[in-house]
Amino acid sequence: MEKTAFELKECDVAWCPGCGNFGILNLMKEILAELSADPQKLVFVSGIGQAAKIPQYMKVHYFNGLHGRALPPATAIKATNRELTVIAESGDGDMYGEGGNHFLHAIRRNPDITNIVHNNMVYGLTKGQASPTSEKGFKTPIQVNGVILEPFNPLAIAIALDASFVARVFVGFRDHAKQILKKAILHKGYALVDVFQPCVTFNKMNTYQWFREHTYLLDDSHDPKDRTQAFGKATEAGKWPLGIFYQYEGKPVFEEQLSVYAQDPQPLFQRKFRKEPVEQLIRKLKE
Amino acid sequence: MSFERTFRDDISIVLAGEAGQGVQTIEQILTRLFKQAGLNVFGTKEYMSRVRGGTNSTEIRVASFPIAAFVNRVDIFVPLDAKAMDHLKPRLTDKTLTVGDRENLKTEKEILNAPFSKMAAGIGGELFSNMIAAGFLAGILHIELAIVYEVIQYFFGKKSADIIEKNCTAAKQGLEFGREACAKHRIHCELKRDPEVVGQIMISGHEAVALGAAAGGCNFIASYPMSPSTGVLTFLAQHGAELGILVEQAEDEIAAMNMGLGSWYAGGRAMVTTSGGGFALMGEGLSLAGAIESPMVIHLAQRPGPATGLPTRTEQGDLELALYAGHGEFPRVLLAPGTVQDAFLCASRAFYLADKYQIPVFILTDQYVLDSFYNAEEFPSVSGEVTYFVVQTGSDYKRYRFTENGISPRGIPGFGEGIVCIDSDEHDEGGYITEDSDVRTAMVNKRLKKQNLLPEDAMAPEFFGKEGYKKLVLGWGSTFHAIREALRRKGEGDTAFLYFKQVYPLSGKVAEYMRQAKEVVCAENNATGQFAKLIRRETGLSVDRKVLKYDGLPFSVEDLVAKL
Ligand SMILES: Cc1ncc(C[n+]2csc(CCOP(=O)(O)OP(=O)(O)O)c2C)c(N)n1
Ligand code: SF4
Known about the structure:
Chain A is α/β, with parallel strands linked by helices. Chain A has helices spanning 20-34, 71-80, 92-98, 100-109, 154-160, 174-186, 208-213, 227-234, 276-284, and strands at residues 42-46, 61-64, 85-91, 113-119, 165-170, 191-196, 215-217, 240-247. In chain A, helix 1 packs across helix 6 (174-186), helix 3 crosses helix 4 (100-109) and helix 5 (154-160) runs antiparallel to helix 8. In chain B, the strands form four sheets. Chain B has an eight-stranded mixed sheet with strand order 7-6-5-2-4-3-16-9, with helices on both faces. Chain B has a seven-stranded mixed sheet with strand order 11-10-12-13-15-14-21, sandwiched between helices. In chain B, strands 18-20-19-22-23 form a five-stranded mixed sheet, with helices on both faces. Chain B is globular. Chains A and B meet through strand 1, strand 2, helix 2, helix 4 and helix 9 of A and strand 9, helix 9, helix 10, helix 11 and helix 13 of B. The structure holds thiamine diphosphate and iron/sulfur cluster (SF4). Thiamine diphosphate (TPP) is lined by residues 48-51, 67, 90-94, 118, 120, 122-126, 131 of chain A. Thiamine diphosphate binds at residues 48-51, 67, 90-94, 118, 120, 122-126, 131 of chain A.
């Protein structure tokens, strides 16, 4: 497939020059082309924020909904039409802050969707407040003395909930990121990829340089099937590991267990209305 | 001490006991029993927000003619414990016949002693005392033992032969005791039976809403449990597999609403069912439906607020919430069924309207209308056709294409060659974010234009009365039957009634109806007269008098006879 298949002819990008979001956008377009994703069957779901604008800059179906609310519609879209490939993509504030409850429960449901989170450890769109993943001591116009809250650890939480795919990448390590994002999309079940993405405008602490120096790639000694080891990696002090932390293949998928598909595999929109079952229930009330 | 009573044509029986004491089981058995005997039945519950203890009561009206409203009067009262006696006290009069087990009730009051517990002990334990009580009432109403056995078979058919037999013995002993009591104390219950009733539907409001939604082509419901809206979710979950409806209990109402919108986007036909507090959490999602022009069906089951309020009681207090919820300006429709037939039709119609105009449509009900049930001669038939408004997209598809009437053909991903982009930010025709003022203005106009189309498709209010009326009563939703019966009882030929099953937008000649009356009275189950305010907003006319009730209970027929 042509690399340009997902390219929009015109688009007015609202990101700052040098922003890590560009790297992710380019990666996504490449990956989708390399995977020969069917553009008619591919849906992006996002919330609100700088990261959440990503589907606007690709030639794809999208549901760009509310801040924090990408996962519920993503789950429902997949459950309503299982033939669609669904990618829920937004920022760390969106997914882990405003949408925190949906994050927990999406993992529990395990729909076959990919959840990509642009983690810049700051609120970009609203101009630089702390995000759930901001490091302690990070100063902002609101956290004037620096963040005092414990940073949210999405990977540890996902592993604790036995998420079926848990990974972290840094957009600056292109090839590595690409390889793992691909695996996440191909994985059957809920797949979380937390992507370190520098915000060059509002986060002067976690820069490209900083991420390069404070991360390392997981090697073969890490077994992603080992949940305990994965949890250890997710909570490790010191440098941040990058790679697939945990993968549970064959975990039962939400939409495959739904009774609406027990007799009929067709997407809901293709089904003809059947009045008989309704009539039968009405008849029962007359008995 | 005399228990001599004569009850004719319309008998109100009230059963009351602690939560967990089986009031509901007796209610189920009795209502079926009465219907199978050809008697018209109406049942309504009143219960506390607790799983054990307290006092719950159920009123069962049996009549020679169709009835469907709550009456305050209690003809026969069956308390199952001492607390029940106190709970019902305000409704009891000299005419009430109280029947119960003196030993359990620990009362010195004048009651017809029926030793249900002792009789039950002889059969196999306390468990059977409810069946004895049911048998007793069957005996008083002269229902044949054969019908009682049939009903026991219906409910316990799958249980062991021993259980069935013991229940039959219990019912038989109760029935015989009832007959003897009638003879001994000269208790006369005169009811006309109608064999037609046996084959009629007996349906509750929540069943009617759920079935109506199914008939409207609903195939997705995501919701979070909240009384009194949960019945609809439970019903659809029980029958989801056969109806082809995907049922999901969401983590919260925010998720439920956003899931519903996701499903519509992907070609589903979704609804949510909730109550005031849950709906408050859906406000942002409702606004999203407005922005992305998504269809959405919201069953808003009202209960008294603010906040948690009275969780299991009734009120019509969320009309304005539904009317004004959601930031920004966008069109909507509010339906408010007052009968089981209308509950079915409104729920079904909600899907049609939502899909046709790509707007949120509300079905506003309340605890009273949902938990009440009765037999009905007529019930709407299920249409074989559901109109689908989804289009197959072409390669140049634009989700928000400007059109004459504001409605852009709605495509879905995976059906056609186009791409379908929707955005909660202000967007252009293609669905892409824009801050262009001209596009913004055009989009607002496009969305609001749809509001102008809605009155044409609105259900007009139903008029009951004769030309030349002097007084006009306005009512909406669940007050329907009580108002009707009250006016019938008053028998004032110059009073008319206008019943609204669609409260917004209004259609028809509401103002004309109002102008013809000397006095316009609006009856509603809330404290501030929300519908009267809406009428004024829409017609410029004020009602002359408001009849309001907000104690958590529905209007009784007697309340309205006195106040209308
Ligand atoms: C309900 C609600 N609250 C607040 C906002 C304002 N808001 C928009 S984006 C955002 C946070 C953005 O941070 P993040 O999700 O990390 O994305 P980024 O912009 O950094 O990519 C906030 C608070 C909103 N749109 N909706
Ligand atoms: S504000 Fe930060 S995250 Fe947003 S575009 Fe600019 S650099 Fe990127």
